[in-house]
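To fix ideas, we quote verbatim a fold written out as C-alpha coordinates:
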Amino acid sequence: LPVVTTQRLCKLLDSKESEWQKFAKHIGMERYISYLKSQLSPTAVLLNIWETRSRDEPGVNDLKTIFCAMDRTDCANLLDIETNIQNCHL
Protein backbone atom coordinates (compact mmCIF):
# COMPACT_ATOMS: atom_id res chain seq x y z
CA LEU A 1 0.00 0.00 0.00
CA PRO A 2 1.18 3.53 -0.65
CA VAL A 3 2.31 5.39 2.48
CA VAL A 4 -0.50 7.95 2.16
CA THR A 5 -3.11 5.19 2.01
CA THR A 6 -1.65 3.54 5.10
CA GLN A 7 -1.66 6.87 6.95
CA ARG A 8 -5.31 7.49 6.05
CA LEU A 9 -6.36 4.00 7.13
CA CYS A 10 -4.49 4.48 10.41
CA LYS A 11 -6.32 7.74 11.04
CA LEU A 12 -9.65 5.99 10.47
CA LEU A 13 -8.96 2.87 12.54
CA ASP A 14 -6.65 4.13 15.30
CA SER A 15 -9.22 6.69 16.46
CA LYS A 16 -11.19 3.97 18.30
CA GLU A 17 -9.41 1.11 20.04
CA SER A 18 -12.24 -1.28 19.23
CA GLU A 19 -11.79 -0.71 15.48
CA TRP A 20 -8.14 -1.64 15.20
CA GLN A 21 -8.81 -4.55 17.56
CA LYS A 22 -11.56 -5.75 15.24
CA PHE A 23 -9.09 -5.50 12.35
CA ALA A 24 -6.55 -7.53 14.36
CA LYS A 25 -9.14 -10.26 14.89
CA HIS A 26 -10.05 -10.34 11.20
CA ILE A 27 -6.44 -10.97 10.20
CA GLY A 28 -5.79 -13.48 12.98
CA MET A 29 -3.64 -11.24 15.17
CA GLU A 30 -5.85 -10.99 18.26
CA ARG A 31 -3.24 -12.64 20.47
CA TYR A 32 -1.02 -9.56 19.96
CA ILE A 33 -3.59 -6.99 21.11
CA SER A 34 -1.76 -6.34 24.40
CA TYR A 35 1.45 -5.60 22.49
CA LEU A 36 -0.38 -3.51 19.90
CA LYS A 37 -1.87 -1.31 22.63
CA SER A 38 1.65 -0.07 23.38
CA GLN A 39 2.28 0.98 19.78
CA LEU A 40 1.88 4.53 18.50
CA SER A 41 -0.26 3.23 15.62
CA PRO A 42 -1.60 -0.30 16.08
CA THR A 43 -3.19 -0.12 12.63
CA ALA A 44 0.17 0.64 10.98
CA VAL A 45 1.70 -2.42 12.65
CA LEU A 46 -1.24 -4.58 11.55
CA LEU A 47 -1.11 -3.30 7.97
CA ASN A 48 2.63 -3.98 7.88
CA ILE A 49 2.01 -7.56 9.02
CA TRP A 50 -0.81 -7.95 6.49
CA GLU A 51 1.41 -6.64 3.67
CA THR A 52 4.23 -9.00 4.66
CA ARG A 53 1.83 -11.94 4.55
CA SER A 54 0.37 -10.80 1.21
CA ARG A 55 3.69 -10.01 -0.47
CA ASP A 56 3.47 -12.90 -2.94
CA GLU A 57 0.12 -11.83 -4.33
CA PRO A 58 -1.24 -8.35 -3.83
CA GLY A 59 -4.33 -8.70 -1.68
CA VAL A 60 -5.95 -5.27 -1.80
CA ASN A 61 -9.24 -6.93 -2.71
CA ASP A 62 -8.85 -9.22 0.32
CA LEU A 63 -8.23 -6.17 2.48
CA LYS A 64 -11.36 -4.50 1.07
CA THR A 65 -13.34 -7.66 1.89
CA ILE A 66 -12.04 -7.55 5.47
CA PHE A 67 -13.08 -3.92 5.87
CA CYS A 68 -16.55 -4.70 4.47
CA ALA A 69 -16.89 -7.58 6.94
CA MET A 70 -16.01 -5.10 9.70
CA ASP A 71 -18.73 -2.73 8.45
CA ARG A 72 -16.00 -0.22 7.60
CA THR A 73 -17.11 0.77 4.13
CA ASP A 74 -15.21 4.04 4.62
CA CYS A 75 -11.95 2.07 4.68
CA ALA A 76 -13.00 -0.11 1.74
CA ASN A 77 -14.00 2.97 -0.26
CA LEU A 78 -10.68 4.63 0.58
CA LEU A 79 -8.86 1.62 -0.89
CA ASP A 80 -10.99 1.86 -4.04
CA ILE A 81 -10.17 5.55 -4.44
CA GLU A 82 -6.47 5.14 -3.64
CA THR A 83 -5.94 2.14 -5.93
CA ASN A 84 -7.77 3.85 -8.80
CA ILE A 85 -5.61 6.95 -8.39
CA GLN A 86 -2.50 4.78 -8.24
CA ASN A 87 -3.52 2.93 -11.42
CA CYS A 88 -3.98 6.22 -13.28
CA HIS A 89 -0.36 7.15 -12.54
CA LEU A 90 1.12 3.94 -13.95
Q: What stands out?
A: Residues 30 and 90 are 36 Å apart (CA to CA). DSSP finds six helices and no strands in the chain. Confidence is low (pLDDT under 50) at residues 85-90. The domain at 3-88 is CATH 1.10.533.10 (Death Domain, Fas).
